[in-house]
Amino acid sequence: RIWREEFAHRIEVLPGDFTLEDFGLGEKKFQELCRSVDMVYHTGADVNLMNNYAKLRHTNTLAMKGVIRLCATHRLKELHHTSTLGVFPAFYAAFGQEFSRMSPIMEGVSPDEKEMKKFFPPTAIGYPWSKWATEQTLRKARDMGLPLCIYRLPNTNLSLRTGFTNRTDYLTALMVSSMQEGMFPIGATAAPFTPADTISEMLVEASFLENRKHWFYHLVDATVVTRHELERWSADMGVSYRGVQYQEFLNAVKERGRASPIHRFVPLMQHWRRYWFDSEERTEPLPISNKHIFEDLPNFKWPSGRDVFQASFMYSCEARFFMPNSKSIGMVADDMVALAKKNAGLDTLPHGLPGGDAFFTQPIRSLTDSAREDVKLSFFGQFALSRSVHQLLKNALFLQAMEQQHPDILRQSISQPLVIVGPDVLGNAFLQLLMAQDPSNRVPRFCEVNFPYGEDGSFRPKRLPNNAPWEQDPRMAAARRLLESSPMLGNDYMSILPRSGDMPEDDTAIFEHSLRAHTFCMGYGAPSYGQWLRESDGAEIKKGYAMHKRFLQHLQWQRAGEPKKWLLASSDHVGHLDDILATYPGAKIIFAHRDACETVAGRCQEVLSLRRGLMAVDVCKLAENELQQMAANARAAADFRRRHTHLKGQFADVDFKKLMANPLSSVRTVYRKLRLPLSSQTGA
């Protein structure tokens, strides 16, 4: 994810071993390096926490002789060396117990050797000693004239930009096991979330400073991550992840045995239990000074812990670190509703819908049962479904809360919307984008259909003018996070249908708020849920259009001024023309036609991109199902138009090939057939 082709000509890879003479490169190549390089970064080490000093001494300490020789031969080269904050027992002990009230560890200060011997017996825990000895060697080298900098780092098991997370690391094993059990041990949450890519950027930037104030740095974000933050960040994604006492967590790990990723680290956890888990939870920043780096790089700052946590979690999902039987994903309808109510801080789902809360719990139950039992979703798939339903429910709660405060929302009139229907998603999207250029049309935007009142319900529109710029909308930030982290909006899908927070969006996401949408079948399989939707002549789908209209009323109320014509689009409307016109009697339907073979191929590609990593996919079965659904929708549409010839004036047909060949001519034809005014400015 970080590779770029332009790197290729700038990088020369030399397979070597810094524990060997001349790094194993041979004297000729080593001498060539001594003459040609200008700066040396030494970041390699054996970080095995279970090895004693004798096993690590050769790799981590004695190998420095070769590094110093490289820097000092022919001419002096500046050395930038990474060490560890783990040389301090207090850091290793997570500043628990007797270390909880200590003064800050300052840059350049060496740890107390007596304290190190007490906590790090060299015959058992050798890594801190190997790095301590290296620091002493480098201090001496600097005193003798070698230009160098030392950077002490915390545990660096993850990256912010890509989310990369080291699977073999203790903290990763703890996170995966915690997700597996649906709980994490309180106390271990004080580990700093300092991403490796941020550290790397700081280190490189500092290395190029000409007038550096310091030579010893602590590259660590001292902010701790608390139990409540982890619970809240997880809950925001629809994940049930609670803090518990260490013994409860340990019992669950022992019961699972070797199948638990953290099982092999239990001896280490038991050894440090008194400090890591039995101490009072820390909420204040760690007592570590990092002022040197910010004195030299005042414009740098640490990323938010939430962003780092979510990036790592998403990477771990995609890399399939988590097991499908993990307890952190609750696929139970009543529990999902309860979690949404808790996180939204609200108790009341929208009134006036048939069945009360059952309007929501019934489809969720059908969907989750089908996804769990019929298709065996992966953890990634379960998470994607849970996260989606969680936000949809929160949005519904926010809608009801706003309706109670502003009853005039439901008095908004949705008059004569333009509705683009057709089996081909790309054709619909292209036509909608074209017609969105008409300033008299109002299209839903990605940020507002996914977060009508913001991610947490805090957005208040204050009746924005209709022409208010979308790039300034506070919901854009949440939309960007969703586009970057959604399991179903990955690179494959975005290459088919690019999206951004302010782009026109079809109204599929609006209809999903009824939890009665065929798109759930597309994304998650869920055959019995699909059957439930089709039963009783599509009675459940009909119920969904009431929620669809209600949602539009909110979006229309949020923008002041004369209401514009809504310009909607969805392939799912094809088979439900009767429901559209029953909900919006004055609607004008724009039917986009495309060759069935081309359409089904594109449809299958779209569904495959949505399901990638979420479940095993039978491509032949997928194509058969999509073709059957498209055929059923086409028959329903044709039958409706035959039976309602009197509505002919409310329909306009568009051919995909003609649309691609001459877009403006096709749009003019639509406007003419539907007797819509087209300004000369728009037509140009």
Description:
With 684 residues, the protein is an alpha/beta fold. Helices cover 49% and strands 8% of the residues. The chain contains 30 helices and 13 strands. The strands form four sheets. The chain has a five-stranded parallel beta sheet.
Tags for this model:
single chain, 684 residues, alpha/beta, 5-stranded parallel sheet, 4-stranded parallel sheet, 30 helices, 13 strands, elongated
Mean pLDDT: 90
- Estimated radius of gyration: 30 Å
Q: Please estimate the helix content.
A: 40-55%
Question: Quick one: overall form?
Answer: elongated
Total beta-strand segments: 13
- The SS-based structural class is alpha/beta
Number of helices: 30
Low-confidence stretches: none
Oligomer: single chain
Strand residue percentage: 5-15%
Summarize the structure.
By secondary structure, this protein is α/β, with parallel strands linked by helices.
Q: Secondary-structure map with pairings?
A:
Elements lengths: L26 H10 L2 E4 L10 H10 L1 H9 L5 E7 L4 H4 L20 H7 L7 H17 L4 E6 L16 H12 L1 E3 L10 H12 L8 E3 L8 H10 L5 E3 L1 H11 L9 H6 L1 H4 L14 H6 L8 H14 L14 H12 L13 H16 L5 H27 L12 E4 L3 H11 L5 E2 L3 H5 L13 E2 L9 H11 L5 H6 L11 H4 L6 H7 L2 H32 E2 L4 E5 L7 H7 L4 E6 L2 H16 L7 H25 L7 E5 H6 L1 H11 L6 H4 L1
Parallel strand pairs: 1-2, 2-3, 3-5, 4-6, 7-11, 7-12, 8-11, 9-10, 12-13
